[in-house]
Amino acid sequence: MQANTDQISYLTQSEAVKARFDKLKQREVILEVKNLTKVYRGAKGETTALKDVSFKTHRREFVCVIGPSGCGKSTLIRTLAGLESYTSGEVLLDGKPVTGPGRDRGMVFQGYTLFPWLSVKKNVMFGLEMNGMPSEEASREVALWLELVGLEKFANAYPHELSGGMKQRVAIARALVNQPRILLMDEPFGALDAQTRCKMQTHLLEIWRNIDITILFITHDLDEAILLADRILVLKAHPGEVQELIEVSVPRPRSPDQLFTPEFIATKARLEELIHPPTEPVDEDAVSVPSRMIRFVNVADNVE
Ligand SMILES: Nc1ncnc2c1ncn2[C@@H]1O[C@H](COP(=O)(O)OP(=O)(O)OP(=O)(O)O)[C@@H](O)[C@H]1O
Ligand SMILES: [Mg+2]
């Protein structure tokens, strides 16, 4: 694949992309976060994990959140899920304040969170049965969702018999079976190998295209964010504040073939600039080198 080096700005949008965003912004607002601030108070003092974070997510929008480690991404998603309290501000889902966990929000985490003693089918059924749905009806519902994630043949398998990618497909089915308004995903593909991760990204896009779901997706991976998102919320650390909300100008439908298109390259360059700002040049004379280096290997050969 050849890199296309035509220089364009990440803000440049084709007519089709512009029209898509115009349409998207006319859709109803599902999630509204207003001046959200979260301060952790612990033995070591206070940490402002989020400061004045505000944004809106429209129906069927795909928003990715990126930012350096510790900038409050997980805090944000846990707060939206109702698993964490917040210090000030507002979180509205369909215009109503979030006060705790609810079926209107589905969660998928990085770590595998399936119940190891339950089959795939029972793992997905768990939430429905807890909510009082009769077993037969729950079983029919689950069959549909397992088909959607391509795991209908593994309904009776147990988590330890599945690959990492398959486990995350089950986790997605389990989150979607309750038909939430929004799917909250915290680095869900972070533990997968590169190839499986790529397949899961394509698979998630396909699911998103086919059902009425809004997605908020946290990632460290800039390519993943550009491939998936309509808009990317970029946070900065200490305290976690919004740096920019970027409209991704890469046209849909998306595929990894777009990785070297001018829009993709320009968007990635902007994200790099925000996440890894240029550092001050180091004054070589001021760097102190330990007088005695411990030699773990034979360094007689110059590796460079
Ligand atoms: N329970 C807690 N008590 C005190 N401080 C916390 C707690 N959870 C998170 N923090 C602090 O809040 C800040 C944001 O943490 P958070 O886990 O939300 O970051 P993150 O962006 O998800 O990081 P990563 O990219 O490494 O997953 C960090 O400084 C962290 O140390
Ligand atoms: Mg995190």
From TrEMBL:
Write down the Pfam families for this protein, in alphabetical order: ABC_tran
Q: Does the keyword Transport apply?
A: yes
The record's section on CDD domains has: ABC_NrtD_SsuB_transporters
One Gene Ontology term of the molecular function aspect: ATP binding
Task: Give a yes or no for keyword Cell membrane in this entry.
Answer: yes
- Please name the Gene3D superfamilies in this protein's record: P-loop containing nucleotide triphosphate hydrolases (3.40.50.300)
Where are the bilayer-spanning segments?
none
Question: What keywords does the record list, in alphabetical order?
Answer: ATP-binding, Cell membrane, Membrane, Nucleotide-binding, Transport
Question: Boundaries of each ABC transporter domain copy?
Answer: 31-262
Q: Which GO terms describe its biological process?
A: quaternary ammonium group transport
Family designation = Belongs to the ABC transporter superfamily.
Task: Check the record and name the PANTHER family matching this protein.
Answer: ALIPHATIC SULFONATES IMPORT ATP-BINDING PROTEIN SSUB, TAURINE IMPORT ATP-BINDING PROTEIN-RELATED
Q: What is this protein called?
A: ABC transporter related
Q: Which organism is it from?
A: Methylovorus glucosotrophus (strain SIP3-4)
